[in-house]
Design goal:
Elements lengths: L7 H16 L1 H34 L3 H50 L2 H6 L2 H8 L1 H33 L1 H8 L1 H39 L1 H6 L3 H53 L5 H42 L22 E10 L2 E11 L4 E6 L5 H7 L8 E6 L2 E2 L5 H7 E4 L10 H5 L8 H10 L3 H5 L18 H14 L4 E5 L7 H15 L3 E5 L3 H4 L4 E6 L2 E6 L1 H7 L1 H17 L1
Parallel strand pairs: 3-8, 3-9, 6-7, 7-8
Antiparallel strand pairs: 1-2, 1-4, 4-5, 9-10
Helix pairs in contact: 1-11, 2-3, 2-6, 2-11, 3-6, 5-6, 5-8, 6-7, 6-11, 8-10, 8-11, 10-11, 15-17
Length: 587
């Protein structure tokens, strides 16, 4: 019996639940105490009914009748109060646990490196923070009630035996049978329940992906294929849920049938004993009351056991995520950058790979502080990867990256990321106001500073024309704006932070030529105070730079001015001839 409690899954999840109880100890104790008090009052009530019948009605004692009925009124009031207290505090605990789990999940997900997020779908993570957390919450909500009912089962069993040994023994035969069935159901349902959770997560992932790409889906007339993918994910949920339902259908009816049969036998045997005066009428009525009371906790206990698989599987899925160790963490040395540093950069024998694909092999180069340098290379050469490595969004395999002579691995992540500011080609904006998107990560920025950054990025003019100017909500992912407008807001966001190192990864690709030139002219003043890396293959932008780092086959092929590299490096020259040919063909 109770095989489910012996499974490794349950033991692992149990520690998780213990933490939830510990964090909400006071509320949990109050809910448990109120449940226990309710339990004892339930047991007392049939005894008082027995005294009303035997002493008040059969004994014709009106005073006792009034006294015991008054007791029943008081007990009824206290019972109702304990139910309210138990429900309030148990739900308070459960909602607090659910909120805590969701906060822990989100906080933990932010600590995990890009490498983790590259392989785990967003929908899978959302499912663990939503439906799985809700399933765990349910366990805390019903735990006090289930505990009280288990206690009630024990007390009622003793009470029934004390009232009538033959009848009590008959009734108690049903308890092991029902609990054995519930335990067997729970152990068999554990694996099926986990597959249901995984199917639900798969559906969430598919829906999130299709809705996230709804513009592409509609533009390419791909609605039918998108619908079929979601339908397939839903069918998977249906199939696994049906398997779980079939399992419940075989077991759950027995939870009702066995107690019902026992009740009928009690009425037959109890009636015979009462008619032949082996027990009093009050004893018989009290006994039947206790039997009816017993059915409720028996069903609740069986239901609780049957719900354990869903709760445990949800807890296991959450724990799997929380057990994922962050691969990028602060070094114990926690060295700071020198305050008088000018943002010099040094890559020394840097090796890096995505999975099994090598990107950089002994990559080495140096950049002087406060210089503007173009990072150039063919598609797939790893230009954008440099942007990810500087703030340690990915960690290198070997080698060192130094800013102002300090190994970035020895600097606290918060400090490092406050000194390196990024603006990407694909500009992600949150569905907040334009002002909030620009001031992201710099909450102390003044209104004038925000507008100055927007002016440099040539975003102030179009923002001022929005319905609510800087307070206008830009829509989900900024899709209320054009591609060029999104890029300019993202650029303003990067500039506002006044970082030691500014990285622009093709950050002006969606901006028209005249606006790009205006922005480049404005950036000259800003970039003179910081080291700027511009990842691009666009000649007008490259000509803005002091130096060029040309990457080829995972290494620095050459470094120098654009003019010099065009004259001395054939592969560099060929790259731009290829770009010009491609551009002419497209025109």
């Amino acid at each position: 019996m109770f095989k489910v409690f012996k499974t490794p899954e349950f033991k692992k999840a149990l520690q998780f639940y213990k933490e939830g109880v510990k964090e909400n100890k006071k509320s949990f104790i109050v809910s448990m105490l109120s449940a226990v008090i309710w339990c004892f009052l339930i047991v007392i009530q049939p005894y008082i009914i027995k005294r009303v019948i035997d002493d008040g009605i059969v004994g014709e004692d009106q005073q006792m009748l009034v006294i015991f009925i008054s007791f029943m009124l008081v007990i009824g009031y206290i019972r109702a109060s304990t139910i309210g207290i138990r429900r309030y505090y148990s739900m308070h605990v459960s909602f607090n646990v659910e909120a805590g789990i969701r906060n822990r999940i989100f906080t933990h997900m932010q600590k995990l490196a890009f490498k983790f997020h590259d392989k785990v779908p967003t929908g899978e993570l959302m499912a663990r923070a939503s439906s799985d957390a809700s399933q765990v919450r349910l366990a805390f909500a019903i735990a006090p009630l289930a505990t009280a009912n288990i206690l009630l089962l024990v007390i009622l069993s003793i009470t029934l035996l004390s009232l009538s040994l033959p009848l009590g023994s008959l009734v108690l035969l049903s308890i092991p049978a029902v609990l054995w069935l519930a335990s067997n159901f729970s152990s068999k349902a554990m694996g099926v329940s986990l597959r249901v959770k995984e199917a639900e997560a798969g559906m969430t992932t598919e829906v999130e992906e299709q809705l996230g790409g709804i513009r592409v889906v509609k533009a390419f007339g791909n609605e039918e294929l998108a619908s079929s993918k979601v339908e397939s994910a839903i069918s998977n949920i249906y199939d696994t849920s049906l398997e779980y339902l079939n399992l419940r259908t075989r077991f759950v009816p027995l939870f009702e049938l066995i107690p019902m049969l026992i009740t009928l036998l009690v009425l037959l045997l109890g009636g015979y004993l009462s008619i032949n005066e082996f027990i009093t009428l009050g004893d018989f009525i009290a006994f039947t009351q206790y039997v009816f009371l017993l059915l409720w906790p028996l069903r609740i206990t069986a239901w609780f056991l049957s719900e354990i698989p869903s709760s445990v599987s949800a807890g296991i899925r959450i724990l799997e995520l929380l057990d994922e160790e962050p691969s990028i963490i602060d070094d114990e040395t926690n060295i700071s950058f020198p305050e008088d540093g000018n943002g010099s950069l040094r890559f020394s024998n840097v090796n890096f790979k995505y999975g099994k694909d090598n990107i950089f092999k002994d990559l080495s180069f140096e950049i002087e502080g406060k210089k503007t340098v173009a990072i150039v290379g063919s598609t797939g050469s790893g230009k954008s990867t440099l942007a990810y490595l500087l703030p340690r969004l990915y960690d290198i395999e070997s080698g060192t990256i130094e800013i102002d002579g300090v190994d970035i691995n020895k600097v606290k992540l918060d400090e490092l990321r406050s000194e390196v500011s990024l603006a990407f080609e694909e500009s992600f904006l949150f569905s907040n106001s334009a002002r909030e998107n620009i001031s992201l990560g710099t909450d102390e920025a003044t209104e004038d500073q925000i507008k100055d950054a927007a002016n440099i990025a040539r975003a102030h003019e179009f923002i001022s024309q929005l319905p609510e100017s800087y307070e206008t909500k830009v829509g989900e992912r900024g899709y209320g704006l054009s591609g060029g407008q999104r890029q300019r807001i993202a650029l303003a966001r990067a500039i506002l932070r006044k970082p030691r190192i500014l990285v622009l990864d093709d950050a002006l690709s969606a901006v028209d030529a005249s606006t790009e030139e205006e922005i480049r002219n404005e950036l000259k003043n800003v970039m003179s105070d910081m080291t700027t890396l511009i990842i691009t293959n666009r000649v007008p932008t490259i000509e803005l730079c002091d130096d060029v780092v040309f990457i080829e086959e995972g290494k620095v092929k050459a470094q120098g001015s654009h003019t010099t590299l065009m004259e001395t490096v054939e592969s560099y020259k060929a790259l731009f001839l290829e770009n010009q040919t491609s551009g002419a063909t497209n025109e």
